[in-house]
Each structure stands twice: as C-alpha cells, then as structure tokens.
Design goal:
The complex is a heterotrimer of chains A (about 230), B (about 350) and C (about 290). Chain B is about 20% helix and about 35% strand. Chain B has helices at about 35-45, 95-100, 110-120, 135-150, 165-180, 190-200, 215-220, 225-230, and strands at about 5-10, 15-20, 25-30, 50-55, 60-65, 70, 80, 150-155, 185-190, 200-205, 210-215, 235-245, 245-250, 255-260, 265-270, 275-280, 290, 295-300, 305-310, 330-335, 345-350, 355-359. In chain B, helix 3 packs across helix 4. Helices cover about 45% and strands about 20% of the residues of chain C. Chain C has helices spanning about 1-5, 10-40, 70-85, 100-105, 120-130, 180-190, 195-200, 205-215, 225-230, 260-275, 280-285, and strands spanning about 60, 65, 90, 95, 115, 140-145, 145-150, 170, 200-205, 220-225, 235-240, 250-255, 290. In chain C, helix 4 packs parallel to helix 5 (about 120-130) and helix 6 (about 180-190) packs across helix 7. Classes of the chains: A mainly alpha (about 230), B alpha+beta (about 350), C alpha/beta (about 290). Chains in contact: A-B, A-C. The interface of A and B includes residues 119, 126 and 225 of A.
Chain lengths: ~230, ~350, ~290
C-alpha cells in the first residue's frame, strides 16, 4: 500500500484545522455578540449552509472563484499562484467544509456559558477583548475542543469538494478518500480496504478523544447560578 | 453627589418607572420578585439599558436617552455584587481578585493579601470558587469588588443564596464592611429584616413602580400606603369608612376603630401589625378599640405563637380569590408562646398602633 | 376516506377503460408512422414496404449501458432519430459512465439490454462472465486519442511528444477508464509514461478530464477526439496520438446482452440494426468517430 495518501490526508487536516479553528471561533464570536436579530439570523444561516448542502456545492463555488479562468483565480494567476490542482486546494476544501461545524460548535459553547460571568467581568472593568479571551473562551473550552476535533475529522474525510478543485494527483493532492475512490473505481478492493481501515482507525481515535473531552471538561467547573 | 435615577423601561409585560435620588446613604430597594428592583439595579450598573431616562452617578451622567449617552459598565465605576456572586469558576480566588485591580502600578501582591486579610480569606487564595462555602464565596466577591475601588456599590439580593443561619452573621459582617466604605450603597432585597438592618433609606417597589421613598425607620413605622404596609409586613389590612375625624368603620372586620391621627379623604385603609394586638388592654380603655374575634387556627413557631382569627359574622373571602395578597379578611396575631387563648372572644389595639393608609 | 373504500371498484374500472382506449388509439398511430418510416427509405430492412399491409409498431424498452463518450451522441442524436421512427420504444434505464464502472455494475446485477463500451477489455470480460454472447459482439466504431488544452490556454506543448512540458496534466485513471488505459499505452510507447503518471491528476471518467481541461485546472489532458469535438467551444485539439503509439486502435464494440426480456427483444434487435445502418453512420462520423 502506498502510504502517501495517509500522509497527505494528515498534513491537509492538520493545516486545515488551524485555519478552521481560528476562523470558526472568530465568526462564532462575532455572531454571538450581534445585537440585530435579523442580520444575526441571516448570517447564522449562511454560515451553517455548507453543513447541509452536499460538499460538491461547495466545490462548485470554490471552482467558480478560484478556477484558472475565474476572477480570483485569474488575479492570483498574474502573481504566479495557482490554487486548483495543488496541495493548498485540499486545505481550502477541508477548511470550507469543516468551517460550519466549528462555527456551530463554538457558538453553542458560547451560548452555554452563563451570561452572568460576562456581566460580572464588565462590572470589574474588563474590556470586551479581555473578557473574550480570559472568561468566555476558557469557559467554553470543552465545547471549542470538541468542535475542533469534529472539524479535524471532517476535514480528514473530505472528498467531494476536494475532488473538484484539487484533482487527483498522486503524492500531491491524492488524499485517503480520493485514493479509496480511485481504488474502488479501478476494482482494487484490497488497496481500498487498507485505506479504509486506516481512516476508520484514525477517526475512531479522534471521536473517542472527543467524548473524553466533552465528558471531563464539563464536570470540572460549573458554578450553579439561578436568577431572580 | 450621589445617585440620580429617572428611567422607564418596558419589560416583560410591565413598565418599570424609577425615579429617585440618593445621597451618601445606604439605600434599600424592597419589593417582591418581579417588582422591578433588580432591573433598576442593573440599569444603574449598565447591564440593562432603559428605554428612556437619565442616570447620574456622583454627578456624572452615565445614561441619557435624549443625549444618546449610554456608558458601558466598564466606564461607570460601579461595584456590583451578584446574587450568586459570579466568581469565575475557572480561576483561583487570587486570580479572581487580581482581575479587578485597575491601577497597574499598584503592588498586586500586597493589595490582594491585604484584601484577603481584611475579609478573612487568608490561606484560600489558591482555592477555586466551587470549593468554598457560601459565606467565603461572598467575601471573595466583596474583595473582588473592593479591589476594583468603585464609586458606588450595588448589591443584588446578597443574602438570598445563603442558608438561614449564616445569613444573620453575614448581615452583621456586611454592616461592618460598609462602615468603611465611602461611596453610596444600594441594596436590593425582598427581605424586610435585611433592609431594616442595613439601609438607612428605603425605596419600596411594586409591579414596576416606586410606591414609597423615605427613611427606613419612618416607612416601617408609618407606611404611606397599602402596598407599602403590605410589603413591610403588615398582614391585617381593612378597607375603611370614615365616621368622624378620629373614628372609622373597618369594613373587613365589621367593627369601629378609634385612631389618634386625623383621618382625611385620601385614607382608604387601615392596617394593624400582627404584634400590636393584646388580650387585655393595659391602660385607659378609651385608647383601645375592641375587635370581636374567634380563634380559627393556631401555628406554633419556635419562639412565639401565631393565631389566626375570624371576625364573627363577617364572611371571609377565600385565600384563592383574594388578589394574590394572601389576605382573606382574617386577623393575624403574633403573641408570646405561652399566651392562653382559650375562650378568647376579642382583641384590643391601642390607637397609636394603627396605620392609616392611602391606596 | 370511507367513500373511497366503498367505490374502490370505480377507479379501477375507469383506469382499465382508459388503458384499453389508449392501446387502440396507439395501434392506430404506430401503424401510420411505420409506413412513413419506410417511405423515407432510411434505415432498417425490417420495416414494411409501402404497399404491404401495416406491420404492428415495435414496442418495448431498450436500456442502454454505454461509455460516457457516447452519451451526447446517443441522447442528442441517435435516440431521437430512432424514436421518431419508432415512438413506441422507450429507453428507460439507460446509463452512461466509464466502461469499467458499467462492467462492474453489470457484473453486480445491473441488467441493461445493450452494452456499448469504449474499449474491448470490458466487453471481453463480460463475454467471459457469461453476460454477453461472443457472436453478438460487433466492433462498430474507432475513436482516436487527442491531446487537448483549453481554448484560452497559452501552453507551449505541441503534441504527445512534449507533453511533459505541461505544468499540470489530467488523464483518465488507467485502472478504470479506457481512455486512461490508452493514454498509458500511447505514452509508454513514447517513453514518457512514468513521468506523466507521477504528476498527473487521474480522473474517474473521461468527461471529468475534459472539463478539468476546459476549466484550466489542468493545462493539458488526454481525451477522445469525440470528446474534444463535443466541447469544441471550450477546448482545442493540440494533436492526435501519433500512428503506431497505440498497438491496437481504440475500438468501441457493441452487443446485446443475453438476458433480455421477451417484450424488449424486438426493439433491441431493431435498435442494434439501426446503429449499424447508414443514418447512424452519419451521426457517428459527425461526432468524430470512425465507423468500421
């Protein structure tokens, strides 16, 4: 079995999660703090959409934007950057597909934090940024961590959008899901099986870790607080 | 100096209207749950925004709807004690207090250890809030507030989260602490005892409105209206019909009562506090009014006795039909535990113990 | 709801009546179209001559499983032409995909009436598997391999010989796509296969490759001449595979499967004859095929 698809998948998912985590948490924070109900629900819907649409729709839009003859793709081409059919495209696809998962997990985690802590922080003069990093994020810890794990696993298993913009180039963009699909198409079931086993094993470990984090994280601290 | 509040807020079905000023006193806001007292406090702190109005803290305008001023809590210099203290559960006692210190040039270590000592928290600095007792948590919360050095102190039902026997100690402790504090204090509570012990001035709120405003002592002795009487604990209230300048007919009790203050048209009710009845008048009979009664129920408490009596001949409304006040026309009398109530057929009340109330 | 239960019989009678009327009416129609088809003098030898009594119209379903490269030709030209002459015949269940996938699906239980693959390998496999009778196989078309680039491309590649100058290449996966197999064969004979396969993107069907080149994602790609012809506004042919680079030409065999339902036998046979006829030949050639 060629191990390159495994390495590429891990590399892609690892780099993707860095972007996904930061962008997803940031967007969740922005929406969390929005006051206007209408704008808030519209933005929330848009950010959740890729979760329910097939990844090929995301792939379509990515191709539409980054394709060699498309506006942004052409612009990047002038400075010598070609996204499609390159390894960064696998990261791009993984980020776009996993982002809604991270966003929703983070937003849910923020909503679970008792607002009274934020209120108390404001009354002792903490700035909003300070409150976010020292109170809100730490108290959302388990939720953010589980979101990150979910997003990583989703990025690892991404296929549809990846196939559309990254191509299937051995040693460069052929991730495990692509390798599995190619192997099955070519009738090479043993090869497909080996990749499947590896993918299942890795995912198992991550989901197990996910459960561990969510169980233990929430036990650690929760001061009860009932209102007037 | 002091606090100036004049706000309106439409909130969950009722409209809150608060308008008061306070000087360097401890001001209490007394009222039932949902009366708007906590909302008022939160508006002062900047945690809730009123629909319209003005709030000034020590002369500085922190909120003015017309001038579109609405300072966030961070800029209002208020110290707020939450009902459940809101200590950050993921930080140690030390860290909780340290966060509130504004003056970066100060020696943090010293400031915090001074505060810990002052509030008897030494040795607890590395502990987490969930491992502390209720009393300790409150002291940490106070330490955190005082580390912030606010201009005014807002206390939101500070003792409701504590066990009954701890409460009295904490009240005494708070009084000691407040003696050292220079700024205004506003205490919100539904406990009469608390407000009486701690606050020199009092606002009474009901259903979003301030129904009384004055010195605590005075308001308890002479509540101006029925709601205030009720909230300050008077259980015996009756509508009246004016017979003469000093005589009324208590309509709910079917008898005539003599007062020592002149009755005018604005007075609609009379109130008698449960402690002020007596079995036998001590002194001039003319000073007492007699109310014929029959014993209905007796409740023994640990150190006194509560007797609920019916006025014969007057049908009482069921508790369920009386509008949530729990009054049904019966009379409540709290007397000494060993009082003999056998054969009791009348109670007496001195004319000075009557409350003349407006509606 | 109760009313429906009582009168269950009524709807059934009405539907039965309607069916009978439709059949009578249809009979009337197809006999007239059969005679008009023969008066055109077009394809099949089996249609009745004008002065003979009316032949009953051909009915039945022809499920086709054909290579992706044939889809456009079939759906846009061949099937409409045949259906115009034989309106009773349907083509439900027809599918177009890579020959490898179709072979697998047939082996896995798919039951089309006709298999038209883009290489002999898949046909041979199905014959050996007992799905197709060797005698019924006809090598009908030849396709040529083309090296393409997008119309707006500025590639410096001129032909199969210097394909390695391209920065990105797309070809079909040789493991499952006949066009990919042929590309491998051609490039092997030119000595550049190792280099190309190490850096090319392998598509799971030839249409995918075609579109990737059209989009510019791949600088060049190898597809069939017919594919290039089908997307002439977006791709241009740089070169046809040099003579001798393919040991065997790209042959498209067609055959009817052994297992065909009785109701469809006639229609399937008629359609196969149609494919071998002159009307179909013109259509194939227009699409870029060479008819054998």
């Amino acid at each position: 079995m060629v191990i390159e698809p495994i390495l590429i998948s891990l590399k892609t998912a690892s780099v993707a999660i860095l972007f996904t985590f930061v962008i997803g948490t940031f967007l969740a924070y922005v929406v969390f703090k929005m006051k206007n109900g209408v704008i808030k629900s519209v933005v929330d819907t848009i950010l959740t959409l890729p979760l329910v649409l097939p990844p090929t729709v995301a792939g379509f839009f990515l191709l539409y934007i980054f394709g060699v003859y498309r506006p942004l793709g052409r612009l990047l081409g002038y400075i010598g950057i070609k996204i499609v059919f390159s390894w960064p495209a696998t990261v791009l696809a993984a980020v776009v597909i996993a982002l809604p998962l991270m966003y929703r997990s983070a937003k849910g985690a923020f909503q679970q934090v008792d607002p009274i802590y934020m209120q108390a922080a404001r009354t002792i003069g903490m700035s909003n940024v300070h409150i976010a990093f020292r109170i809100l994020f730490p108290l959302s810890g388990p939720g953010l961590a589980s979101g990150g794990i979910l997003a990583f696993s989703r990025g690892l298993g991404e296929f549809g959008a990846t196939a559309m913009i990254a191509g299937n180039i051995a040693g460069v963009t052929r991730t495990m899901p692509l390798a599995i699909y190619s192997a099955v198409s070519g009738g090479n079931m043993e090869l497909a099986y080996s990749y499947v086993v590896v993918l299942v094993l890795i995912s198992f470990i991550f989901v197990w870790g996910l459960n561990y984090v969510t169980e233990h994280g929430s036990n650690k601290r929760r001061a009860s607080s009932d209102q007037d | 100096m002091g606090l100036y509040v004049d706000i309106k807020k439409s909130y969950k079905g009722f409209t809150l209207t608060s308008s008061f000023e306070s000087g360097k006193d401890s001001l209490g806001i007394l009222g039932a749950s949902g009366s708007g007292k906590s909302v008022t406090l939160k508006c002062i702190a900047g945690l809730i925004t009123p629909d319209e109005g003005v709030i000034k803290v020590n002369g500085k305008t922190v909120f003015d709807s017309a001038a579109k001023i609405n300072l966030p809590p961070q800029q209002r210099n208020v110290g707020y004690l939450f009902q459940n203290y809101a200590l950050f559960p993921h930080m140690t006692v030390w860290a909780n207090i340290a966060l509130a210190i504004r003056d970066k040039s100060k020696n943090k270590e010293k400031t915090i250890s001074d505060l810990l000592e002052r509030y008897e928290l030494t040795g607890l600095e590395k502990r987490y809030p969930t491992s502390l007792s209720g009393g300790q948590q409150q002291r940490v919360a106070l330490a955190r507030i005082f580390a912030y050095e606010p201009e005014i102190l807002l206390l939101d039902e500070p003792f409701s989260a504590l066990d009954a026997f701890l409460r009295e100690n904490m009240q005494a402790q708070l009084i000691r602490i407040l003696k050292d504090y220079d700024g205004d204090v506003v205490l919100v509570t539904h406990s009469r005892d608390e407000v009486y012990r701690i606050c020199s001035r009092l606002l009474i709120m009901s259903k979003g409105n301030i129904v009384a405003n004055g010195e605590t002592n005075t308001l308890f002795q002479n509540p101006p209206n029925v709601i205030s009487a009720r909230i300050t604990g008077c259980k015996n209230l009756s509508e009246i019909e004016r017979l003469s300048e000093y005589r009324v007919r208590a309509l709910d009790w079917g008898c005539e009562i003599e007062t020592d203050e002149p009755i005018d048209e604005a007075h609609t009710n009379i109130g008698i506090r449960a402690h002020y009845f007596t079995k036998t008048p001590a002194g001039a009979a003319a000073d007492y009014s007699r109310i014929p009664v029959e014993v209905d129920e007796v409740m023994d408490s640990a150190f006194d006795k509560t007797v609920i009596l019916r006025v014969p001949g007057v049908p009482h409304r069921s508790i369920l039909s009386s509008d949530k006040t729990g009054e049904d026309g019966r009379i409540w009398w709290i007397c000494e535990k060993n009082t003999d109530i056998s054969g009791l057929d009348a109670l007496y009340v001195h004319k000075k113990d009557l409350l003349l109330l407006r509606s | 709801m109760l009313k429906l239960k009582k009168n269950k019989l009524m709807p059934i009678l009405i539907i039965a009546l309607a069916l009978m009327m439709a059949m009578f009416g249809a009979c009337g129609d197809s006999s007239s179209s059969a005679s008009s088809a023969s008066s055109d003098g077009a394809t099949s030898s089996e249609t009745a001559e004008p002065d003979e009594p009316e032949v009953p119209a051909i009915t039945g379903n022809v499920a086709i499983a054909a290579a992706a490269s044939l889809e456009k030709t079939f759906t846009e030209k061949l099937i409409p032409a045949f259906t115009a002459a034989n309106p009773e015949v349907t083509f439900d269940g027809s599918t177009y995909d890579s020959s490898g996938k179709l072979q697998e699906q047939i082996e896995g239980g798919l039951e089309p009436a006709i298999f038209f693959s883009a290489a002999t390998k898949q046909m041979t496999a199905l014959v050996e598997g007992g799905f197709i009778d060797a005698a019924s196989v006809t090598n009908l078309l030849e396709n040529q391999l083309a090296l393409i680039t997008s119309v707006s491309s500025d590639t410096t590649v001129t032909g199969f010989e210097d394909i390695t100058n391209a920065k990105s290449i797309a070809i079909g996966d040789p493991a499952s796509v006949p066009a990919g197999q042929y590309a491998q064969e051609a490039l092997t004979s030119l000595g550049s296969w190792d280099k190309v396969s190490a850096s090319a993107s392998l598509g799971t069907n030839v249409t995918e490759v075609l579109n990737q080149v059209a989009e510019g994602s791949a600088e060049v790609g190898i597809v069939y001449a017919t594919d290039a012809a089908g997307l002439a506004d977006k791709v241009k042919v740089l070169a046809i595979a040099p003579d001798g680079s393919l040991e065997k030409p790209v042959i498209y065999p067609v055959a009817a499967l052994i297992k065909i339902s009785d109701a469809d036998q006639e229609a399937v046979a008629a359609f196969i004859d149609f494919l071998k006829g002159s009307e179909a030949k013109a259509i194939f050639e227009a699409a870029g095929f060479k008819v054998l």
